[in-house]
Specification:
614 residues, membrane, transmembrane, Alkaline Phosphatase, subunit A, alpha/beta
Length: 614
């Protein structure tokens, strides 16, 4: 009887249940080996919550335990799900993204392995037992027995001290994964509620100048820049390809080209195969933000939601003020998705075209197909060109969106049987269709006379094949295609192509670049000076070395240099460098690590200091 009543005490039973959930999250995120760390770092925070219940919830104690159990379970579940896509630990800041979940529910379900739902099993069983078994209801009276206040208070004091000690000892770790591992996930979540400035220190916004940024990056201003005004006066058409990674270009599967259109375009202009994403939580909208501002994404949340209320210095504004450009952006989804209406106002686009313009015609995923996007966009660009002013246009593709369940009517390639019912196979089919649709756009531009008078910029917005959620079969297929194990150097690698018919000689350029560099590179080609404009990218035609700080998808403190991707451990000293393809060995210097972190802080400080839009 003693044993039975002991195990039915809420404190004991829910402690056991939470231990199981701690280990489930641990195995998904930190590895599958046995360790005492989940108990040592996770149990104190759980017991602190339970001690509070014992102190202050006597009458409805069981109900409160059930509520707290559900809340803590949901935290662990959210951590697991977020990690499977982004590769980092989710925090409360992600609540801003909850409103987008309905739109991307297909992506959520693709990441949702059935065994993840086992974390809620106890909640369902307890609810059923309480609802349908009368004997179980007597549990509430057993649970109502009060623990002596002195005992509960003592436990609370001890557990809070241990939690504070875990946080204090590990507060200076910049790698969120290592920090969460050593603090404990729940302690880490509480710690992340402290404002960033209080944890990392602030950079005076007046110290953020173009000169200071160039000095920190180790670059200078070219006196006679290569490519200056090579595309002067041309329409600038920027095509952002959804989830497009660089390994797709020139890829053949059993002799079939996956992206024949882009393969040809890469041979017609400037192709940067060593170009990398720097997007954050906003993914596609973050790529739009960086391309148009050359500013880093915020430490938490999507740039469109965090910075959309700001007066942002941007490429559309500079082109209009200095070179007389008109600007427009085209996206087939609702403009309010990811608060793009706020972002476009902050960036200063003259016009935007969204779902209302494209209508629900030939729907793929969230809106009209890429075929409709490009056909109607090309026609509208021809109309805008009649006004006599050069056009700056952003065109956002979307049909190749995660989870890449392309409608059968759009499939244009017959892949080998080994790709059937695989995530990688679905990805290849989607990107093959996206490539086909892009080819139709090029044809329309040629028909309406814009092709020979444009600078076409094409890049991927973010990765499409997350290494954290691939099955063994998918990993083998990736290795077969790229002829090496799939790792971060391929996952973060997106292409950049610049085509200006008759103005740019075709070249494959080996320098490292990132999305931050698109704005200054385009500005150089059209003759737009940026010497007095705060921007964190660099002109890729006039710089051969680069330093790319990364946020999201890799832990904080990670960066890409000319030879590799550096990922810190608990400190710089125990970090690892993954060599980039073609580099014999990756090398990262501590001064690069410190400069990368300062560049991020400088960008954060500068954008926060910008005035609010009226």
């Amino acid at each position: 009887m003693f044993r039975k009543s002991f195990w039915l005490q809420p404190f004991v039973l829910f402690s056991v249940l939470m231990i199981l959930k701690m280990y489930m999250a641990w195995w998904v995120i930190f590895g599958d080996g046995w360790s005492w760390k989940p108990l040592l770092t996770g149990l104190p925070s759980v017991w602190a919550a339970f001690a509070l219940i014992e102190l202050f919830a006597s009458r409805r104690k069981l109900a409160v335990y059930l509520i707290v159990n559900t809340l803590l379970t949901t935290v662990y579940f959210a951590v697991i799900m977020y990690y499977k896509y982004f590769g980092i630990i989710v925090t409360w800041h992600a609540l801003r993204q909850v409103g987008q979940v309905a739109e991307v529910k297909g992506s959520v379900f693709q990441l949702l392995h059935p065994y993840f739902l086992l974390i809620y099993t106890d909640i369902v069983l307890i609810a059923l037992l309480l609802a349908f078994r009368r004997k179980t209801r007597s549990w509430a009276s057993l649970a109502a027995v009060r623990v002596r206040p002195a005992l509960a208070g003592g436990l609370l004091a001890v557990t809070l001290f241990v939690c504070a000690l875990l946080v204090w000892q590990n507060r200076n770790i910049v790698n969120e994964l290592k920090q969460a591992e050593r603090m404990g996930i729940l302690n880490y979540e509480v710690y992340k509620m402290i404002p960033d400035e209080a944890r990392t220190g602030n950079v005076p916004p007046e110290s953020v100048t173009p000169q200071a940024i160039r000095h920190l990056k180790g670059i200078g201003a070219a006196e006679e820049p290569v490519g200056w005004e090579a595309a002067k006066g041309r329409h600038i058409i920027v095509v952002q390809l959804e989830a497009f990674q660089n390994f797709l270009i020139h890829l053949k599967v059993d002799g079939q080209e996956i992206t024949p259109v882009l393969n040809e375009l890469a041979a017609e202009g400037l192709y940067f195969p060593r170009f990398y994403q720097q997007a954050g939580a906003g993914n596609t909208s973050d790529a739009e933000y960086m391309t148009n501002t050359s500013l880093h994404v915020p430490p938490h949340g999507a740039a469109s939601q965090v910075y959309g209320s700001k007066v942002l210095p941007s490429l559309p504004k500079l082109l209009a003020a200095r070179l007389g450009y008109q600007s427009a952006t085209f996206h087939t989804n609702d403009v309010q998705f990811w608060s793009r209406d706020e972002l476009y106002a902050a960036l200063g686009f003259d016009k935007y075209y969204d779902r209302d313009f494209f209508e629900d015609e030939d729907v793929v995923h969230f809106g009209a197909s890429d075929e409709v996007l490009y056909r109607k966009t090309a026609a509208e660009l021809a109309e805008l060109a009649k006004e006599g002013r050069p056009i700056y246009a952003n065109v956002i593709s979307m049909s190749a969106h995660h989870p890449f369940n392309l409608p059968e009517r759009k499939n244009r390639i017959d892949l080998p049987e080994r790709f059937d019912d695989t995530f990688v196979g679905d990805y290849l089919r989607s990107q093959n269709y996206a490539d086909y649709a892009l080819g139709l756009f090029i044809e329309e531009l040629k028909k309406n006379g814009l092709w020979d008078d444009c600078l076409l910029v094409i890049y991927g917005d973010h990765m499409g094949v997350p290494i954290y959620s691939l099955t063994d079969v998918d990993l083998l297929l990736m290795e077969e295609m790229i002829r090496r194990p799939y790792d971060y150097t391929q996952m973060l690698n997106i292409p950049l192509l610049l085509i200006a018919p008759g103005a740019l000689e075709p070249q494959v350029l080996p320098q490292i670049g990132g999305q931050m560099d698109i704005m200054p590179t385009v500005a150089n080609l059209v003759g737009l000076p940026l010497q007095d404009t705060v921007h964190f990218g660099q002109d890729l035609l006039n710089e051969t070395h680069n330093l790319l700080p990364e946020r999201y998808y890799l832990p904080s403190g990670s960066f890409i240099n000319d030879t590799g991707i550096f990922i810190p451990g608990a400190s710089f000293e125990d970090g690892q460098t993954i060599p980039l393809p073609g580099a014999r060995k990756g090398f990262a210097a501590k001064d690069e690590f410190e400069r990368a972190l300062k560049l991020l802080r400088m960008s954060d400080s500068y954008v926060k200091s910008l005035p609010e839009r009226e």
